[in-house]
C-alpha cells in the first residue's frame, strides 16, 4: 500500500470477555429424513450465565437472536414446542422450581410457572407437543399441560414419587415418561390416563418398571442421560461409570452394554432412523454406536469416536432431513461444534464463534475509549496514542507495554442484564439499555478517571430498550422490546420524547418462517445520524426514517439476514452486509431523491455481485463496519479484517462468484422463504421465487464501464492475523483499535493418561 494508506493498529486484549459454558442444545424440529429442511429450523443454545442464543444453520451458521437473562441465573434445559400453524414456543429450566416460557419476539419471559415440587433438574416434551414432563430433586415428576397455546401452562399430574433426584427425563410417545435417577436406576411411569397399552387406566401416574445400572465401587452411580428410540422400542442410558446401555422397553431388560467412556456420560442423541446413537460426556469424546446385522442377528456395535472438544461435553443434539445432516455439541469449552451425522467417522467439523452477534464492545474515537458490558457491569478503558500515530511506521503499531488504563467501572444494582450501551460522539454521555429500563450517565474526566453522574430521565427510567444509538451529543434514538422507536433529547428540561412513525410490516407474511418465528419481523439493527436512522429486520428488510419529515423509506428487501449496517458520513451513504457475505451500499434518502427507483449506489450496482472470493467465502459473518479516510471502508468479523476502497471497482477478472460448496455442516437449500405449498419445487423454481421478491435493480452480467485504480492503490485488503476479534473501530485519523478476545480461562479438562511412543 502507498504510505498515505498506512494505519497504526492497536491490538487490545484487556477486555475480560467471558461466555458461559454451554449447558443445553435443542433443535426446533424433530428429524425427518423424508422431508426437506424446514424453513424455520433453529438451534437454541443455553449457557451457564443464563443467556439463550438462537442460531440459524443456513449460510454456514449465524447467530440470529440473543435472549439475556438475569443475575446469577443459568439455563439447564431447553425444549421447543412445535405445533402446526402455530408460532414456535421455547421453554427453559435453570436451577429453580420454575419453568419459563420465553417470548422470542421481545426477549422477555412470557410466563414463569412454578411446579411446586422441588428444584427442576430435567425437562422433556411429548410427541404430540401438548405436555411437558419435569424431573425434580425430591424425586417428583410433574406433568404440565401446554396445549392451550402461547403462555398457557397448567398442572396436570404429579406422578408416583420416589426418593431420588430425577437427573434426566424423556417420553415414549405420549403414554410413558422415562427418568434417569441419582440412585443408579431408570424408572418408567404411566403418563396417559387414556392409554390402553397397560390394560387399565388404574395405572395412570404409577411407577411401572425400575431398571438398575452397574454400581461403582467408589461412589453412587448416577444416570445422567436417557434416550428413547421409537423405531426400535429401546431405551438408551448413559451413567457416571462411563457406560452406555441399551434396554428393551417392553420387557424392561438389558439388551447390550458398552463401557465406552472413561468418565461420566452426560448426553445422548440419535439419527432419524434410530440406527445410530451418539454419546458424549466428561472425557471429551463423542462415540458412535451403530446397529449392525451379522449372521442373521442384529446388535449394536461401537464404530467410531472423535475428539472435537478440549473439555467436558455437556449437551449434544442432532437433526436430519433431505437438506441437513447435523450433529452439534457443546460444553465447558463454550464453543458449538458442528459435524455430520451420516459420515461421523470421517467428517470435517466446524467450531462456531463465541462472539455474540450483538457485540458487547464499542470504540469511541473522540476520547479514545473502549467500552464493554457484561451482565450488570460496564467497563471503560482509555487507549493511549501509539508511536505509529505519532510518526513512526505502521509496523511499530501499539507495541507499548500496557498502553491503556481502566478509567471507569459501573456496576448496576438491579439484577437485569444489560442489552445494549451507547457512548455519545464526544464520549461524555453513556446510555445503558435493558429490556425494562434505560439509564443515562454523565462521564466527567477527573484525575485520570471518569467520574460517573447519573442523569435523571423519568421517561427512560420506565422505558426499556433493546437498541440505542446517539443522534448527536445530546439526543438519542432507541427501540423498545415492542419495536416502538423514540428520539429523546437529554438536555430538554421537560424531558420530552418523540415517537417516530410506526414502520410498515414489510415482511412476506405468508411464509412459514414468518409465521413460526415472530422475531423475524422485529428490528434487530439500529444506526442513527443527525438526519435520520436506519433500521433492519432479520427477514432482510432495511428502512430509513427521516427525523425531520418523519418519512419512512424502504431501502431494500433482501433474502438474507443483515449482519451489520452503518452510515458512511463522508460518502453520505448507508452500507450493510448480509449473512451471505454480500455488501450493499445505498444513497441516504432525501427530498431530492425520494422518488428514485432504486437507492443503490453506483459502486454497489457495479460490485455487490463481484466481491473477492476471499471475502465471500469467509465463514464468520461481518459484525461491524466503519469508515476510514479517502473512501476506504473497513469490515470485520471474528476471524478477519478487511477494507474496500470505494473509489474504485473490483477488478473484473473472473466470473460471478459461485456459492460455497456443500460441506455438510450447514444448510444451503433455498427453502428459507418458500410458501407452504412450494416445498417440493425444484431448485430452478426456487431461484425464480427468490428473484421475484428481490428489490435490487437487476444486476447485469455486463457491468459496463469499470473504474479501476491507476496509481497502484489497493482496491481490497484482507487479513486473518487478528483473531478472535471482539470489536474494531477508529481511534484517530490514522489509528484503528482491534479488541481481541483474551485466552479463555476454563476448568481443567478430564485427565487422560499419556503414553510414550
Automatic annotation (TrEMBL):
<dbReference type="InterPro" id="IPR019775">
    <property type="entry name" value="WD40_repeat_CS"/>
</dbReference>
<dbReference type="InterPro" id="IPR015943">
    <property type="entry name" value="WD40/YVTN_repeat-like_dom_sf"/>
</dbReference>
<keyword id="KW-0677">Repeat</keyword>
<dbReference type="InterPro" id="IPR046351">
    <property type="entry name" value="UTP4"/>
</dbReference>
<dbReference type="InterPro" id="IPR036322">
    <property type="entry name" value="WD40_repeat_dom_sf"/>
</dbReference>
<protein>
    <submittedName>
        <fullName>U3 small nucleolar RNA-associated protein 4</fullName>
    </submittedName>
</protein>
<dbReference type="GO" id="GO:0034455">
    <property type="term" value="C:t-UTP complex"/>
</dbReference>
<dbReference type="GO" id="GO:0003723">
    <property type="term" value="F:RNA binding"/>
</dbReference>
<dbReference type="Pfam" id="PF00400">
    <property type="entry name" value="WD40"/>
</dbReference>
<dbReference type="GO" id="GO:0032040">
    <property type="term" value="C:small-subunit processome"/>
</dbReference>
<feature type="repeat" description="WD">
    <location>
        <begin position="159"/>
        <end position="199"/>
    </location>
</feature>
<dbReference type="InterPro" id="IPR001680">
    <property type="entry name" value="WD40_rpt"/>
</dbReference>
<dbReference type="GO" id="GO:0030686">
    <property type="term" value="C:90S preribosome"/>
</dbReference>
<dbReference type="GO" id="GO:0000462">
    <property type="term" value="P:maturation of SSU-rRNA from tricistronic rRNA transcript (SSU-rRNA, 5.8S rRNA, LSU-rRNA)"/>
</dbReference>
<keyword id="KW-0853">WD repeat</keyword>
